[in-house]
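Teaching assistant's notes for section 4

Start the section by putting this record on the projector. Ask students to predict, before seeing the second block, whether Peptidyl-prolyl cis-trans isomerase SurA will look compact or extended. Collect guesses on the board.
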Amino acid sequence: MKFSKFFISLFTICLLFCQALQAQTPVVIDKIIAKVDNHFILKSELESQVQQYKQSGQAGAPSTCQIFESLVVGKMMLAKSEIDSITVEDKRVESELTSRMEQMEQQFGSQKNIIEAYGKSISSLKDELRSAIKEQLTTRKMQEKITSDVKITPKEVRRFFEAIPKDSIPYMPSEVEIGHIVRLAKTTKAQKEELYKRLYDYKKRAENGESFEEMAKLYSEDLGSGKRGGDLGFAKRGQMVAPFEAAALKLKPNQLSDVVESEFGFHLIKLLEVRGQEYHALHILLRPDYQRLDVVEPTKYLDSIRVLIQRDSIKFERAAKEFSEDKATQDAGGMITDPQTRSIKMALDGTMESGLYFTIDSMTVGTITPPMPYRTEDGRSAVRILYYKAKHAPHYANLEDDFQRMSNYALNRKRNTAIEKWFATAKNDVFIYIVDEYKECNIMKTNDQ
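Reveal the predicted structure now:
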């Protein structure tokens, strides 16, 4: 079966960050091989992508021309995002950067090892990676906009699967079903007192005439709103977390709140205006030092839940729904889903997060780990217990066992078609230059030409 030539672009977006993380190795003599408006593609970038695909071990690796084409599409998305005013908030970039750096630290064992591997300070490395992450997130957001209306029906999934030649049906690796129950680390009493003291000091200074906006720029740890003087813009009722909104709506215009604690940290709020069902507020946000949070209480809590599950006093799924603080998995009985397929069946191979892979590899089906440290997707410190629910033997794909995975394949193919149609039109809105060496790739030629 011939897949869309843009199918590889999703994986290429993920490789943008990997390329930025390359340790110091010899590279080809660099030169610009393509330009899309103000965005350039370097020969070293292409060569790095080609090498990344080879190292990924994926079957049916794309050709150099296909990888080059996907890079051009990615740069086009960046160019069009600027034209269409599609942006990614700084706080989203910083959150992703923090998460990636923590993954690296876990992989290398320490920050010292990271510095030795890349020959750069952590600060310098972060500065280099920040732009790569922003580019990745912006490209992803543009891609989501292009494909937002693309849906798939069960009938389309069946047609997709039945059209696959028998000798091309995918061989599925071993898959596992894993659940977890998460409890967040708690702010210590000393940390709370410190943050309350700082915020009440800011409040007193504002009441004495100092600019709230300038203090927000200097001190707020919400980097996105902080640059705007703490301005959150107009928010509809129900849009903000409950403690924040309740405190804000009790205020009169230009009045300051007491310190408000939410899942994001500690806030000092200034209400500007209420307009119907909307309100306009500023805030200064301070977060506790996540390295100093208290994990003793959540560890004891999870240990007691683990004992109850092992004694069959409560089922794991019910315990997850009642006690887990991971909102993403709580309603699903704690079951973790594959980030790509959204299925609870996850491939037990190199695509799985390394820490999770090695933990599961040492377990037997039906067992539960003791409480272990965990970092949530938004970077918060936590503790969790893992439940190894099931393991599925490798097999050739079929609709009965692999419908969700086949549905994702079919949906990706449909999305790729949408991107291909978008490319045929959008290429007329931007300037694209390709050096002679790669013109034989026929990137500017679309399927309808």
